[in-house]
Write a structure and sequence with these properties.
The complex is a heterotrimer of chains A (713), B (122) and C (156). Chain B has 122 residues and is of the alpha/beta class. Chain B has a single domain (4-119), classed as Response regulator (Rossmann fold). Chain B contains 5 helices and 5 strands. In chain B, helix 2 runs parallel beside helix 3 (61-70). Classes of the chains: A alpha+beta (713), B alpha/beta (122), C mainly beta (156).
């Protein structure tokens, strides 16, 4: 059972790859439409992808998937045969079919059924493409053949003719003359007789009439005929099945010898003789040619490939757990190296030239190993981008805005988990770009733009991080409207004076939505605030840049991996803790005159004329009861959802360094305000602070229930 | 003696299924992911029977059959073609190209094993 | 110890240790290792009986003061204390105890229901007791002594 499950899992993994290849191929064909420059092998590859999905799906009884894949495949087969020239309309249907296929795969994986008429609609469009094409296979062709195939060697009780004969022994007389082709196809007469012998009592006679003199014998030719008498309870059908593979490679007569006479017996028992004779006379002549030549004439012959496709890159499939264990151990190695360095330093041996050189080498080596191991988890963002192409298609269809989707940097590699968790926020951003970013066609025309809008998705490595950008060439953010809505919703006072960038950032405030009515696209109950918090959960930041009339760009900056982070190591009331550097806007030592008490226990600090609440981490985490005097502290300015800021007060800053992230959840559970833990150079544990959560917990309007829901996004 | 099978299919799923089913059936199973890979493995494995998919990248099933039949050492090798369509024209093409027989996907485990036994000597 | 007796429940091996003035034991199958006390990093907002977390060869392992957890006096951990590292389900947890005594083999039938004399706080965590000539061993039901947040972590 577990093996079956494993194979099932393999199938769905493979489906993902095939769907990716399918999408790739379709895009490649898209690009080649104008000058018909696409490769026939691309069409072949696309066909193969769908074909393989169908093949696997059939094995797992995913009928809906098989059925749809078959319809899709039929179109691709026609295209492959050159009888359907891909144009924009054809490709549109193909893309939608690929999307639907992907849905069916997903549904199959989750044991669900895809609801709705979408499949029927696309299927209708698909069959519309093959109508009129000559090689269009009727749909029932494959179906009936597949299911009508009779299992070998099994008696068929439904056959009524057989029932009458079952008890009686039949005497069959089989006259069997192999052609040369039978032997060259790897078939063997003795094996056929062996199989016949399993059906009953067998008597074989060889007819050697056609055997020439020994010196004239051509070893490749077939001279013998056989007459076989078989006494069996089995039906003629069973006998014919034995000869299934050599049908056409021999002359075969099977007669039920009712009167125990010789072959040319009763007419009804030889009903198939005509067919056989026809087949054998036609094929046998062909078969005397060398098999190589015959096969070479077939259009699909491998030897005729115009352009041999490049071989697959050598890869090894590894269980992710193993990789994670390796990453963990390498993390240990790095920590261990730090501990060792500390020990040697404490022992006062660090200034010995050789020792410190070796230590430095050790450190570099450990870092290199760490980076290489992390690279194993890295994957290209391509599948993610392909998913987004689909989102653009759907959004464009629903909103009636034509949109071209462009991508750049698809090969950029990012940690697998980060990619997985980017799907939702990116989907939302892309939908937004089409739905809110792009103007309706008439408005674009009026503005002197092409009616078809552009949405661009790019990825690139930028100084140790990954930068992902979603941009559109729409009208840009309507800042007046955004401001007005923010005031209406009570998010900002009506007399606020905000810079353009600050207004743009209002979009990230919880509860903000510019859509007057909830549209099908973006109105899925989430706002940009959820996007932002999802990105921040990944240690990333999101920013927005908009130019009126020209468009909007959203940038996401992400760490390369979730296994390490750049941290600021700080002292919090005697406990060493780590604050992620990405969260820190700036650090400052406040002057006494900048600090103002607020209420009984609270204090605020003025930073460039803005009042920022101060949070003493020592108090928040229970390491001391009352806040320490702020003048003795260092403040870390952090920003949270919206444009709110907090100043986290710590006793001192020790260091800035990369730390290995260790989860607390496995053995303990979530600690409020704490994101994870790490192991320091001395082997001790330091907790990594979640600044956002810490700030929210200390903030006056912390709504824990709501936040818990958002964390699942 | 254990019958050695070389199974060539570009679908990992099908390869795994073949490997599982045939190993259970007492065969020694080797797999290859396309025709070129299969031809590279052929002399090393020296199988008793080859099972091959038709539509594969680089070298398809017909190419495999041609290449095998062209090698004196393996010219008489039983070769089974895996096909999704059991349509008559495909069978005919398989036969014309020199295949020994065919198996229709999705295959029944017992039938697959029976078919291999049927065309091999061991 | 009636080791030869074969009962329905079979034989069990138990690790016995001392917490405060009392003897306790847990199933040896749960114990991964026993190690000396090392200072733990304090976990904010943790219940009082959670002393913090320690680094166990790269894993972050919470330490439970068993004495405090069982409703006895909270420990003041020092070098003489011992940590019993136990695996419960997929979790690894350390229990601070005064000292580990020995390993005994018993038959499950020797485990008796907890007598009423034990305090309510302790009884909730005890699966039963084993009475030998010289002492009474309380068998700890280890799942119940995990802090609440651990249980929710497991559920989530």
């Amino acid at each position: 059972m577990s093996t079956a499950n494993e194979i099932r899992q393999t199938f769905f993994q493979e489906c993902d790859e095939l769907l990716e290849a399918l999408d790739d191929g379709l895009c490649e064909i898209d690009e080649g439409i104008a000058d018909e420059s696409f490769d026939l092998e691309t069409v072949n590859a696309v066909f193969r992808a769908v074909h393989s999905i169908k093949g696997g799906a059939a094995a797992f009884g995913l009928d809906a998937l098989v059925h749809f894949a078959h319809q899709f495949e039929t179109v691709l087969d026609v295209m492959r045969a050159g009888e359907l020239t891909p144009n924009d309309d054809v490709m549109k249907v193909c893309h939608r079919a690929a999307d639907h296929l992907s849905d069916l795969v997903a549904a199959g994986r989750d044991n669900e059924i895809v609801e709705g008429d979408l499949g029927t609609e696309i299927a209708a469009k698909l069959s519309g493409l093959v109508v009129g094409s000559e090689s269009a296979k009727p749909d029932n062709d494959t179906e009936s053949e597949t299911f009508g195939f009779v299992p070998l060697g099994l008696p068929i009780p439904t056959n009524t003719d057989d029932e009458d004969q079952e008890l009686a022994l039949n005497r069959f007389c089989v006259r069997f003359t192999p052609s040369a082709g039978l032997y060259t196809s790897g078939n063997d007469t003795s094996l056929l007789f062996r199989e016949l012998a399993e059906l009953g009592e067998l008597e074989v006679t060889a007819e050697t009439d056609r055997l020439p003199d020994l010196k004239n014998v051509d070893p490749g030719e077939s001279y013998l005929s056989w007459v076989v008498i078989l006494l069996t309870e089995e039906s003629e059908q069973s006998l014919r099945e034995v000869f299934e593979f050599v049908d056409g490679l021999c002359e075969l007569q099977i007669n039920l010898d009712l009167d125990a006479t010789m072959p040319e017996g009763s007419p009804d028992a030889t009903k198939d003789v005509d067919d056989e004779a026809q087949a054998s006379s036609g094929v046998a002549a062909e078969e005397s040619d060398s098999p190589t030549m015959v096969a070479a004439s077939s259009p699909d012959s491998g030897t005729e490939r115009a352009k041999p496709a490049t071989g697959p890159k050598a890869t090894v499939r590894v269980n992710l757990d193993l990789v994670d264990r390796l990453i963990n151990m390498v993390g240990e190695l790095v920590i261990n190296q730090a501990v060792l360095t500390q020990c040697i330093k404490d022992a006062g041996l660090l200034d010995r030239g050789e020792l410190s050189t070796s230590l430095a080498e050790f450190r570099n080596l450990a870092r290199d190993i760490q980076e290489s191991v992390m690279a194993i988890r890295a994957q290209s963002v391509k599948p993610l981008f392909q998913r987004m192409a689909r989102i653009v298609r759907e959004a464009s269809e629903l909103s009636g805005k034509d949109a071209d989707f462009l991508t750049e940097g698809e090969t950029t590699e990012v940690d697998k988990t980060i990619i997985e968790r980017l799907v939702d926020p990116l989907t939302h951003m892309i939908r937004n770009a089409v739905d809110h970013g792009l103007e309706p066609p008439e408005q674009r025309r009026a503005a002197g733009k092409a009616e078809t809008g552009h949405v661009k998705l790019t990825a690139a490595h930028r100084s140790g991080r990954v930068l992902i950008e979603v941009s559109d060439d729409g009208a840009g953010i309507n800042r007046e409207k955004v401001f007005q809505i923010a005031v209406e919703k009570g998010l900002i006072p009506g007399d606020s004076i905000l810079k353009d960038a600050e207004i743009d950032n209002l979009l990230f405030l919880p509860g903000f939505s510019t859509a007057k009515e909830v549209s099908n696209l973006s109105g899925r109950g989430v706002g940009m605030d959820v996007v932002r918090s999802a990105i921040q959960k990944l240690g990333g930041r999101v920013s927005i840049f908009s130019q009126p009339g020209k468009g909007t760009t959203m940038s996401i900056s992400l760490p390369l991996t979730l296994a390490v982070l750049d941290g600021m190591v700080v002292d919090v009331a005697g406990q060493t803790m780590v604050v992620p550097i990405t969260a820190i806007v700036e650090t400052l030592r406040p002057k006494a005159e900048d600090i103002h008490p607020l209420g009984a226990d609270n204090q605020v600090v003025s930073v460039r004329n803005k009042l920022v609440p101060v949070i003493d981490l020592g108090v928040v985490f229970g390491h001391r009861r009352t806040p320490a005097p702020i003048s003795d502290m260092v403040l870390l300015l952090v920003e949270s959802d919206g444009s709110e800021s907090w100043a986290l007060a710590v006793d001192q800053i020790f260091d800035q360094r990369q730390v290995v992230i260790k989860g607390l959840e496995t053995n303990y559970g979530h600690v409020p305000g704490v994101a994870a833990a790490t192991i320091l150079g001395d082997g001790n544990i330091a907790l990594i602070i979640d600044p956002e959560e810490t700030a929210h917990r200390s903030g006056p309007v912390a709504d824990v229930g709501d936040r818990a829901r958002l964390e699942e996004v | 003696m254990t019958i050695k099978v070389l199974a060539i299919d570009d679908s990992r799923t099908i390869r795994e299924m073949l490997r599982h089913t045939l190993t259970q059936g007492g065969f020694e199973v080797h797999v290859a992911e396309d025709g070129i890979d299969g031809m590279e493995k052929l002399p090393q494995v020296a199988p008793d029977v080859v099972i091959t998919d038709i539509n594969m990248p680089r070298m398809d099933g017909f190419g495999v059959i041609n290449a095998i039949r062209a090698e004196a050492e393996f010219a008489g090798m039983p070769i089974l073609v895996l096909t999704t369509e059991s349509a008559q024209d495909l069978k005919e093409r398989a036969r014309n190209s020199g295949a020994t027989g065919w198996i229709v996907k999705p295959f029944d485990d017992g039938k697959l094993i029976g078919t291999i036994r049927r065309i091999t000597v061991a | 110890m009636a080791e030869t007796q074969i009962a329905d429940f079979g034989l069990r091996e138990l690790v016995t240790f001392r917490v405060g003035q009392q003897d306790f034991c847990i199933d040896i199958m749960m114990v991964r290792e026993i190690r000396g006390w090392t200072p733990a990093t304090i976990l904010p907002h943790a219940p009082p009986f959670v002393l913090g977390v320690i680094n166990l060869r790269g894993s972050i392992v919470p330490i439970v003061d068993l004495s405090a957890r069982l409703g006895l006096r909270p420990s003041e951990p020092d070098d003489r204390h011992v940590i019993v590292i136990a695996v419960v389900g997929t979790q690894t947890v350390g229990f601070l105890v005064n000292a580990v005594a020995d390993i005994i083999g018993i038959n499950q039938s020797e485990v008796q229901p907890t007598p009423d004399v034990a305090s309510d706080a302790t009884r909730a965590f005890i699966e039963g007791v084993i009475v030998t000539e010289e002492r009474m061993l309380r068998v700890i039901d280890i799942k119940t002594v995990l802090p609440k947040s651990m249980e929710t972590a497991e559920a989530g």
